[in-house]
Specification:
The chain is built from 16 helices and no strands. Helix 13 crosses helix 15. It is mainly alpha-helical. It is globular, with a radius of gyration of 20 Å. The two termini are 20 Å apart.
Length: 293
């Protein structure tokens, strides 16, 4: 996921700033915590970032040969299909958040031939189709209806009032120290004349967070998908400060050192506290069937 996040950053920032963004991402406590679990969440985020990367390359101004564009379209559809297999309806969160990006970049106009997107989506859904058929043969149609019942329960099965503050506060507290300077990045992004960057790094996370605040379930791992975009926005804040001569190379090295120190401290606490049972996340909010190390 970090490598794909770096490649996403390289689409609109320098190599150094993209690398700094990765350092920010890997210093976030919640991200470090979930990196220890054998759960589908990070795999799901990997494929979400992969279809964001291919989306960027399908909508930028660079002219790719037809066969390269077809490959990107296939990967885009395939990544969405696999994401559905991994986290079912959770894939709707980033897709709904990206709707403004689709319109601001003219995705539909630039990709009039979409057969490879459909083909990739179909192939990506083959494991899901096979599992649904097996579930119907084993449990009957209740095996399928339970899937929709589960999604409905998660969305509207309780009070939404606690979610209104749970997700914003969790996002800010468990992305420290990135949350301290990310707003500088948002200010620079809003001044950027490129609507695609604003849609990707400001509008899309805002829509996703708003949707999360309106559902009744409260699970920390639901916001993991926002962290790579927040890290990239923080990287842009560094780029903005450097261009404004508000930050020197020495200061940059100092901040990077602080990030590594923070990452080391967080990782050490996770490893040595209570024989690995230290957690930032209530165990009841962990995914089902998670392998706890």
């Amino acid at each position: 996921s970090s490598l794909v996040t770096y490649q996403v950053g390289r689409e609109f920032m320098s190599k150094r700033i993209a690398l700094i963004s990765i350092l920010f991402l890997n210093s976030m406590p919640l991200w470090v915590q979930y990196s220890r679990y054998a759960s589908p969440d990070l795999a799901y985020i990997f494929f979400v970032l992969l279809f964001i990367l291919t989306l960027l390359r399908l909508t930028n101004d660079q002219k790719y040969p037809n066969h390269i564009r077809n490959i990107y379209q296939f990967i885009f559809g395939f990544s969405i299909g696999i994401s559905i297999l991994l986290r079912s309806f959770m894939v709707l969160l980033p897709l709904l958040g990206l709707i403004p990006y689709f319109f601001s970049t003219g995705f539909l106009k630039k990709n009039k031939t979409k057969i490879f997107i459909y083909l990739g989506f179909l192939i990506g859904n083959i494991p899901l189709i096979v599992s649904i058929i097996h579930s119907i043969n084993t449990f009957g149609y209740i095996g399928v209806t339970n899937l929709f019942d589960f999604a409905t329960t998660k969305a509207v099965g309780g009070s939404i009032y606690k979610s209104l503050y749970f997700y914003p506060t969790t996002l800010l507290l468990l992305s420290f120290p990135t949350s301290l300077i990310v707003f500088v990045g948002y200010r620079s992004i809003l001044k950027n004349k490129d609507p695609a960057i604003r849609s990707l790094l400001v509008v899309s996370p805002s829509i996703t967070l708003t949707i999360l605040c309106l559902i009744s379930s409260r699970h920390s791992h639901y916001i993991l998908v926002l962290y790579p975009l927040i890290a990239l926005a923080t990287g842009l804040s560094f780029q903005y400060l450097i261009r404004q001569n508000n930050i020197t190379l020495r200061t940059t090295k100092l901040i990077i050192g602080i990030l590594f120190t923070s990452l080391g401290l967080v990782s050490s606490l996770i490893i040595i506290s209570d024989k690995g049972n230290f957690t930032f996340i209530p165990k009841e909010s962990l995914p089902i069937n998670i392998i706890y190390i």
